[in-house]
Write a structure and sequence with these properties.
single chain; mainly alpha
Amino acid sequence: MLRSADTSPDMQKKYDELLKGLSPEDRFLKGMSFIAFCHSCLIAGFKAKFPELSEKDLKRTIIEQVYGDALTPNMRLQL
């Protein structure tokens, strides 16, 4: 498992054991919950940084920041 820079090895071991004790379904749900949390943090951060943006422009800005150069000119036109 990955070790966090701000977590002691002892606590990381306990956390890893806790995750290993979960059913596959519960680990999946925990992962989905983490993704939802990260998504809400991303949105909140962009709203704080760009409070003047409409929801549509906010979505476009987030997509452009996350995907960057991977967006083709055609994809950018569709945003």
